[in-house]
Amino acid sequence: MNLLELTLTEIEQGWHHTDTALVCNYCDATFADDQVFPVGDGFYPAAKMIQYHLATVHPQAIDELIRTDSKYNTLTEKQRALLSAFAMGAKDATIAKQMDVAAATVRHQKFTFREKAKQAKLYLAIYEQVFNRPTSADELVRLPEQSGMEDDRFAITIAEYTQLVAKYFTTTDPLRLARWPKHQKAILAVLKRITATLPADQHFTERELTDQLKPIYADFPLLRRYLVDYGFLRRTDGGRDYWRNPSYKE
After folding, report:
1. What share of the chain is helix, strand, coil (3-state, %, to 5)?
2. Collapsed DSSP state (helix, strand, coil) of residue 247
3. 63 and 100 housed in the same domain
4. Over 80: is that where the pLDDT of 54 sits?
5. Is position 127 within any domain?
6. Which of 5, 40, 48, 196 is the most buried (most CB within 10 A)?
């Protein structure tokens, strides 16, 4: 698996989601969404199984990430050793003694790591704004792929999307839907805006999803059904597990 093909969240958590399964970043172990897996005397759904897998098979996953073999990993061997020690929770004085350096040197390196992280965060924000932000109100917003023939009701410009959100939501912070629209283009705009409030790369039980949707609109079962029917959300056959469609990324 090329980690650079994944999102930042997927790299950090150690696994990624395909259309049908959760996949370990380190060994490509795969756990299908619609299956449960025996562990001891119990059974784990895929979302819990991937966490169990990482904890038992890759307990030192942070070291695997720190030592990723990539031209983009420019950490020196000393920096990698320091990061591994920090990850283990070792105290500065202990690390200094092990590496035969002054404690002030360790503290300075920790400060340097924090500064580089701030630089990287700002760079990513600038890059996203320059290369990935919409450039025209006539540009179409992205929607999940639909089965069958798509018509112009699935073509929504950024300007149209903005107008529809303003029309159907009384407020966007917090998000409150005033009424359910009748036309498909408006329905898609509403569903897209609601999906943006759901954390990516997170699984929900039906109760947890209800907790997310109920404050938005009283008829939350309607929201849940349409989000699944139009491909914004995926779920297991029994409806025990819901998650954002991994092939649809805004």
Report:
1. 50, 15, 40
2. coil
3. no
4. yes
5. yes
6. 48
